């Protein structure tokens, strides 16, 4: 695993070496402790990063943040098997644009980075690629484009990697509208089976990303399918007890329609999944009662990096197909499910309290205050009149019976 370690470096002007000198001497040497990176799989990129860090340290007082930014980027490209030397038109697979998307998801979806940190990190990465371009390690084009940005008082040169301040997730709901949702489902249905099921669990079952990442394939059995004949499959608990990492470890029932349940079962019987599961089991022999539904090509269970890759790929396909960007985060798929479910229930039920209670339970909200945000959103939106327009994509027809 790449890490940062400390070394001591001496910076200064080297005196001209005389014929009888045994070693170099410095004019006014400066001794500095510098943070460098070690443990990279690609030793050449490690060497280049450390040369860039040394260059930075010779010019400024503090270079630790530069090293931290490059370490973060290195972990990203290694986790996603991205070539740092080659530009690509596919942003999710780009060493620069892909990392920018990753930082934005950290800021907006997980809330584990501040905007200022993300902005600083992408600027350091741009500086590193300027160093690589200057030294003819990589081509000039394809990693970013220069552009002019306005600060309000003057224009400054920037790049299209720049991260603008955005509203953090949690301040307001931002579900997809009817048009976006229909388009999203069209795009999702063109993706590979694993990625299609992953995104459908978010928009069709309202799962959080960590719940999708850790979903247990062993819950999708013929016994659970035939418990009763209802359109919704009942009494399937998701919780850490069955390997699914729910928020606050709170158990709840999985909301899933019969057709969607059957499509997951079909995937589990496919050659693709069986090969991935065999690969996973080789290094996880002692995990009894748990098989991840979503497995990478290297045989590891899905994590946040893999989820982000799926999301960035989905947004790219959406933009290619419809000619416009989808400015949403993965969590907005869950918000789309929640607002639509509440819309259905408040239309069908006379008792709004009952409807709120059902949505709170289905979504796994800790208290009613969170669920009430969905009511507030519905009062100020032009969301679809019939949320079934979204959910019926998982079947020919959807009927939600109000109990």
UniProtKB/TrEMBL annotation:
A Gene Ontology molecular function term of the record: DNA binding
Domain Tyr recombinase residue range list: 171-389
The keyword Transcription is assigned to this record: no
Entry keyword set: DNA integration, DNA recombination
Keyword hit for Membrane: no
Family matches, as InterPro entries: DNA_brk_join_enz, Integrase-like_cat_sf, Integrase_catalytic, Tyrosine_recombinase_XerCD
CDD domains, per the entry: DNA_BRE_C
Protein name from the UniProt record: Tyr recombinase domain-containing protein
PROSITE patterns to which the protein is assigned, alphabetical: TYR_RECOMBINASE
SUPFAM superfamilies according to UniProt: DNA breaking-rejoining enzymes
Biological-process GO terms, alphabetical: DNA integration; DNA recombination
Record lineage: Bacteria, Pseudomonadati, Pseudomonadota, Gammaproteobacteria, Alteromonadales
PANTHER family the record matches: PHAGE INTEGRASE-RELATED (PTHR30349)
């Amino acid at each position: 695993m790449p890490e940062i370690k400390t070394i001591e470096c001496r910076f200064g002007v080297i005196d001209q070496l005389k014929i009888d000198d045994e070693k170099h001497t410095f004019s006014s040497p400066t001794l500095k402790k510098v943070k460098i990176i070690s443990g990279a799989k690609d030793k050449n990129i490690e060497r280049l990063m450390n040369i860039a860090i040394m260059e930075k340290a010779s010019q400024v007082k503090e270079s630790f943040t530069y090293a931290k930014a490059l370490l973060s980027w290195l972990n990203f490209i290694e986790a996603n098997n991205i070539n740092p030397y080659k530009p690509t038109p596919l942003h999710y697979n780009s060493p620069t644009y892909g990392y920018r998307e990753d930082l934005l998801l950290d800021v907006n979806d997980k809330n584990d980075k501040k905007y200022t940190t993300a902005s600083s990190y992408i600027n350091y990465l741009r500086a590193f690629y300027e160093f690589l371009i200057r030294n003819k390690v990589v081509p000039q084009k394809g990693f970013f484009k220069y552009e002019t940005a306005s600060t309000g008082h003057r224009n400054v040169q920037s790049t299209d990697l720049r991260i603008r301040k955005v509203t953090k997730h949690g301040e307001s709901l931002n579900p997809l509208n009817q048009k976006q949702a229909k388009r999203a489902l069209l795009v999702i249905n063109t993706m590979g089976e694993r990625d299609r099921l992953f995104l459908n669990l978010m928009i069709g079952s309202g799962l959080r990303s960590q719940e999708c990442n850790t979903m247990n394939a062993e819950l999708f059995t013929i016994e659970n399918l035939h418990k009763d004949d209802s359109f919704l499959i009942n009494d399937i608990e998701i919780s850490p007890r069955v390997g699914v990492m729910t928020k606050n470890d709170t158990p709840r029932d999985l909301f899933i329609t019969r057709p969607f349940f059957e499509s997951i079962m079909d995937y589990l019987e496919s050659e693709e999944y069986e090969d991935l599961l065999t690969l996973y089991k080789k290094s996880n022999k002692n995990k009894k009662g748990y098989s991840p539904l979503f497995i990478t090509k290297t045989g590891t269970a899905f994590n946040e990096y893999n989820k982000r890759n799926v999301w960035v790929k989905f947004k790219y396909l959406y933009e290619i197909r419809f000619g416009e960007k989808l400015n949403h985060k993965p969590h907005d798929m869950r918000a789309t499910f929640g607002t639509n479910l509440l819309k259905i229930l408040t239309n069908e039920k006379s008792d709004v309290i009952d409807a709120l209670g059902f949505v709170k339970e289905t979504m796994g909200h800790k208290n009613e205050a969170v669920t009430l945000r969905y009511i507030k959103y519905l009062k100020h939106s032009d969301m679809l009149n019939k949320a079934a327009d979204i959910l019926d994509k998982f079947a020919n027809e959807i009927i939600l019976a109000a109990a």
